[in-house]
Amino acid sequence: MMQCMLDESIGIDPKVLRNSLGHFATGVTIVTAQTEQGPVGITVNSFASVSLDPALVLWSIDRNGSRYDMFRYAEHYAIHVLRAQQGDLAFKIVKNARDFGDWDLVGGEYGVPIIPQCLAVFECQQTEVYRGGDHDIILGEVKTLRTFEGDGLGFFKGQMMTVKS
Ligand SMILES: Cc1cc2nc3c(=O)[nH]c(=O)nc-3n(C[C@H](O)[C@H](O)[C@H](O)COP(=O)(O)O)c2cc1C
Question: What is the pTM of this model?
Answer without folding.
Answer: 0.95
